[in-house]
Structure formats: C-alpha cells, structure tokens
Amino acid sequence: MAAFLGFLGDLPGLRLAEAGEFTRRAFENGRIDLTEAEGLGDLIAAETEAQRRQALRLAGGAFRERAEDWRRRLIDLRAHIEADLDFSDEDDVPDDLSHEVGVGIANLRKEMERELSAGQRGERVRDGLEVVVLGPPNAGKSSLVNALAEREVAIVTDIPGTTRDLLEVRLDLGGYAVLLVDTAGLREGGDVIEAEGIRRGRARATAADLILWLDENGNAPPQDVLALGVPVMRLRTKADLAGISEGVKAVSVRDRTSVDRLLDLLTREVASRLGGESPLVSRARQRDCLSRAVAALRNAEGKALPAEVVADNLRQAGDALGRLTGRIDIEEVLGSIFSTFCIGK
Ligand SMILES: Nc1nc2c(ncn2[C@@H]2O[C@H](COP(=O)(O)OP(=O)(O)O)[C@@H](O)[C@H]2O)c(=O)[nH]1
Ligand SMILES: [Mg+2]
Residue 63: CB partners within 8 Å, gap ≥ 6? Predict the structure, then answer.
C-alpha cells in the first residue's frame, strides 16, 4: 500500500489528500457550514448509537438551519431599530416598535439559552459521561472496573495501594458512551506516588458526572467526597464474602449476575440523564459561540438603552452566530477541526 501510494505521489499532478481536505473544500465552497463539518467529523469518530444519532443530526444541517433562522431574525430586528433611528423625528414609525423589538430580542435569547442548557447533555453524549470509581484501598475498585469492562484494564492484587495512576475505560451503555475511571484508594499515608494518585483521583472526581463509592462494609463516603456535590452511587463490594446488605446495593465480581444487575442500573441512570432528542450543541466551541451571542442579547435587553447601543449588541450577537457557522473569523479554528478527520474524507 505504501509503495503504491508512493508511486502515485510521484506522478505529476497527483498528491495525497490532506486530512479532511474534501470536507474542507465543501466548507470553503459554501456547500456546508462549520457545524455540519463538525457533525461529519463526529460521525466518523462516533463509537456509540447516541453519538451517531447526534452527529447525524448536526451533519444533516439541523444546527445550521437553526442558526440561520436566528441570524435572519437578528437582521430583521436591526432593520427595525435602524428604521427607528432614521425616522425618529417623523411620525410614520409606530411608537410600539421598540416594545416589539424588545420582545423579539428576549425570545431569541430564551431559545438560545434553551439550546445551551440542552447542550450540556450534548457534550456528555459526544465526550462520554464520566463515572469515577472511589473507595478505600482494597475495596475491590479495580476488580469491579475490570468486571464492568469485561477485560483486564487494571492490575488487581490484595496489596493496598496497587492502583496509582488513573485508568480509563470506555463503555457503551445502552448506546451511550461512558468513561469509567479507576483511581487509587483514598487513605492517609502511603508513599509519594500513591499520594499523588489519590490527589489525582480526587481531582478527577470533582469534575465527574457520577461517583461510584465502593466499600466492602457498605460504609458511606467521607464528608469531603460528599462535599464535591457530585451524585454518588454507593455499593457494597465482595458481597460473596458477607451476608445482608442493609439497603446498600451489593455487588461481587465472583457473581456475574450481580455485575450485570449493576450494569443495568448504570445503563438506566445514564439513559435517564442523556436520553431524549439529540441536542444541537455538543462541543465547547459551539457552546462558546452561542454563549457570546446570548451575552450580547442580554446587553441589548437593558432598559432605556439608546437605539445605537441596542443595534450594536445585536450586531455582536450576529457575529457570534457567524463564528458558530463559520461565516466569519474562522481561520484559527479550521485547522483544529479538519485535522481530526482522516485522509480521504
Ligand atoms: N471475594 C471477593 N474478593 C474480591 C472481590 N473484589 C475484589 N476482591 C479482592 O480484593 C482484593 C483487592 O481488589 P482490588 O480490585 O485490587 O481493590 P482496589 O484496591 O479497590 O482496586 C483483591 O485480592 C481481589 O481479588 C469480590 O467481589 N469478592
Ligand atoms: Mg485498584
């Protein structure tokens, strides 16, 4: 293959396409916008059904259409305001125009805010919901991570402090991507390497979507873990060794049924958080552009603002949408988007 490509590359007028070059051309020729290009990139990278559905919606132009509708309405509103400015000393522009404009701005802002909050779900679908496994040393964290992943991700021994690095494994739970993170057991003492592992585990848990707290006695997590404000699912491990579970869910890696039950439970939990229609916003870049548009609209909504200020804020909101769809100011983001494509796309 390499020799063949090398041969072709030596022919005059032929060269290897760059990563994402065809999509980039489609974008540069205005056949697709930036959100559609991103959707296509996500589609190529999609690993789960929910990621595929979400990417397809974006690639199909759902976000583009929405953003274009917003932009048209922004332009209309600006036209109203400018008419107001031009004819302010005449009587043929009705007085309630500014009220109408105010309502129009508020409606736009609310629609964008709804997409932004749905987008938290969109980013989770795209990047995977993060589940961090915490608990005392030897609680059986690594064993459970291996059992859930059905492969040997982490080393398991009966020596406390075996796991030091964070270990990540991607799971597909009911079509949703989940990133399961194994951590070093939380305890005092241990050497500097283990202490660093514990620090990283805690830091990772801060940004997690869910903490699985494992303890072989079913004990609750310490206050500092609860204080992270991340939802916690408590599990009593090594259920094959002891009897009753006193209301805390029990699991044993020696009993596959209990692991499957836990997988079902996690799947339901993930589906309830990420289910529903695919959101439009699914990347930090899109969220950032849309947040700027919302901020500009907020600034336009102030009471008794001069019409020029309102018009300028609407222009800024329009620019933010232009950046979202790639109409303006895009050079710096293009490279990063198309470089993630593979050659030939
Ligand atoms: N009997 C029994 N032993 C377990 C179970 N899960 C883990 N272990 C044992 O507990 C010890 C510590 O397990 P490990 O997964 O390394 O715990 P970690 O330190 O929390 O990651 C190992 O000797 C495992 O074989 C279980 O469900 N039942
Ligand atoms: Mg471990």
Answer: 35, 36, 39, 57, 280, 281, 286, 324, 325
CATH number of the 16-126+283-338 domain:
1.20.120.430
Q: Which residues line ligand 1 (CB under 6 A)?
A: 135, 137-143, 156-158, 162-163, 185, 237-238, 240-241, 252-254
The fold of 128-274 is: Rossmann fold (3.40.50)
Is the pTM higher than 0.85? The answer reads: no
List the domain boundaries for the chain. Answer: 16-126+283-338, 128-274
Q: Is the dihedral of CA 40, 74, 313, 299 positive or negative?
A: negative
Residue type, 68: E
Residue nearest to atom 2 of ligand 1 (CA): 238
- By alpha-carbon position, which residue is closest to atom 9 of ligand 1? 140
Tell me the two tokens of residue 170: 């991607």
For residue 163, give the H/E element and its range. none
Tens of pLDDT, residue by residue over 252-270, are 999 999 999 999 999 999 9
Ligand 1 centroid to Cα of residue 28, in Å, is 55
Out of 57-61, 93-97, 122-126, 233-237, pick the least confident: 93-97
Strand order in the sheet with 167-173: 167-173, 176-182, 129-134, 210-215, 232-236, 249-250
CB 309 within 8 A of CB 13: no
| C-alpha 31, offset from chain centre | 26
For residues 259 and 245, what is the distance between their CA atoms, to the nearest angstrom?
A: 15
